[in-house]
Automatic annotation (TrEMBL):
Residues 120-456 form the GS catalytic domain. Gene3D superfamilies: Glutamine synthetase, N-terminal domain, Glutamine synthetase/guanido kinase, catalytic domain. SUPFAM superfamilies: Glutamine synthetase, N-terminal domain, Glutamine synthetase/guanido kinase. Its cofactor is Mg(2+). Keywords: Ligase. Belongs to the glutamine synthetase family. Pfam families: Gln-synt_C (PF00120). This is Glutamine synthetase. InterPro entries: Gln_synt_N_sf, Gln_synth/guanido_kin_cat_dom, Gln_synth_cat_dom.
Length: 456
């Protein structure tokens, strides 16, 4: 994987006093960076080999509360440690923090030193290995959308997340003039990420006031997931340093566009030089392999939706007429579709999955898409004809699950995912999903109070 510093360069920078802090990070179930801040000299002396963390970090909810019922970690097992094994190929400097470097760690069993089956990065590594065994390399790219607010996180909290001031007062989709007003954060984000070894191709205004889209250059799939999580973490830190706030919620406001994370994906030869989806004489210039891969993703989309939409809020985004999909089909170039073929007629031909929200965990989402694509190849599935028209109005098309509850049960019943990811993995994340539903079901919402306090 590609950081922008070697370990030897890190040691030299530490010796020269250019770096005094090393962030040793792993990724939790929610796709957030967790870990430790090391005084740099101690990291390069010993912690570069391994450090440890409490295994409850892969058995808690988004509030960091331990969740009962997991097999992997519990009070009865004492919540022991797992190993955080630094991946020294992921070291990069962090321009937005003073004298700081960051790297990612793989989470391993303390006794066997094997990847934890339910670790997000480990789950994706397993699918990458399946690709490598067949001579494939997967290139992925995720587009991230978010809202930028002229608020701090403290002021937003004080307002109870209501009536927040967005960075721009009206929709600025593609408008240069309005997005110039947002450049204080966006220019830093583009340049600092580039300096951290995360190449940003562009940013633009999106279809909501103060809404942004940022596009990271495609990469090998594990590297892309690494870029994704560092970008999200860094974006919030950069915004906070500028007195602003960012939200990656799928749907922060009922009346405004949601935040997506469209995922572009294709297969290449093992050396990354030959596109395996492009075939000049094929229908749609999409090779048989590409058609089977895409057909697999279509067939199993309902089963892996939870990996693209893991929260109650995620399903509020799937509304007609909002550029978020509601139906499962593919199109050659149609933004009402759940899947869209991009780059037709070029070596860059790829399938774009438009289902995911910006709240997804990229390791889990990418792993699920690979598993479904490989299932399509193994089953030699035939790709249906592309849809033409307004998919929102096409009643006969299969639907994306409408609620977290629906997506959880389709995940629980998926034989394909149990075989590809493992029983242990599916059971772990089904439990995660059911806990999220349970927590929501027992809470009283502002909407309920507004409707019922006086009128019931």
């Amino acid at each position: 994987m590609a950081g922008n510093l070697t370990f030897d360069q890190l040691k030299s920078a530490v010796a020269a006093g250019e770096i005094d802090t090393v962030l040793a990070c792993a990724v939790d179930m929610q796709g957030r960076l967790i870990g430790k801040r090391f005084l740099a000299k101690y990291f390069v002396e010993s912690a570069y080999d391994e450090t440890h963390g409490c295994n409850y970090l892969l058995a808690n909810d988004i509030d960091m509360e331990p969740v009962p019922g997991y097999k992997a970690a519990s009070w009865s097992k004492g919540y022991g440690d797992f190993v955080m094994k630094p991946d020294l190929n992921t070291i990069r400097n962090v321009p937005w923090l003073e004298k700081t470097a960051l790297l990612l760690c793989d989470l391993k069993d303390r006794h066997t030193h094997e990847d934890l089956a339910h670790s997000p990065r480990g789950i994706l590594r397993k699918q990458v290995k399946r690709l490598q065994d067949r001579g494939y390399l997967a290139y992925f790219a995720s587009e991230l959308e978010f809202y930028l607010f002229s608020e701090t996180y403290d002021s937003a909290r004080a307002k109870h997340w209501q009536n927040l001031d967005t960075a721009s007062p009206y929709i600025g989709d593609y408008l240069i003039g309005i997005t110039t007003k947002e450049e204080g954060v966006m220019r830093r984000l583009r340049n600092d990420m580039e300096a951290a070894g995360i190449p940003i191709e562009n940013s633009k205004g999106e279809w909501g006031p103060g809404q942004e889209e940022i596009n990271v250059r495609y990469a090998e799939v594990l590297e892309m997931a690494d870029r994704h999580v560092i970008l999200k973490n860094g974006a919030k830190e950069i915004a906070a340093s500028e007195g602003k706030a960012i939200s990656f919620m799928s749907k922060y406001n009922y009346g405004l566009a949601g935040n997506s994370s469209h995922i572009h994906n294709s297969l290449w030869s093992a050396d990354g030089k030959t596109p395996l989806f492009y075939e000049k004489g094929a229908e749609w210039t999409l090779s048989k392999l590409g058609q089977q891969w895409s057909a697999g993703q279509l067939k199993y989309a309902q089963e892996f939706t939870w990996f693209l939409a893991p929260y109650i809020n995620s399903y509020k985004r799937f509304q007609s007429g909002t550029f978020a999909p509601t139906k499962i089909m593919w199109s050659e170039d149609n933004r009402t579709a759940g899947f869209r073929l991009c780059g037709e007629g070029t070596k860059g031909i790829r399938m774009e999955c438009r289902i995911g929200g910006a709240d997804l965990n990229p390791y889990l989402a990418f792993a699920a898409l690979i598993a479904a694509g490989l299932a399509g190849i193994d089953e030699k599935l035939e790709l249906q004809k592309p849809f033409v028209g307004d998919a929102y109005q096409a009643a006969s098309l299969p639907e994306i699950p409408k609620t977290l509850r629906d997506a959880t049960e389709t995940l629980a019943s998926s034989k394909m995912l149990r075989e590809a990811l493992g029983e242990e993995v599916v059971e772990h994340y089904v439990h995660t999903a059911r806990w999220e539903q349970f927590e929501y079901d027992r809470r009283i919402t502002d909407w309920e109070l507004h409707r019922g306090f006086e009128r019931y």
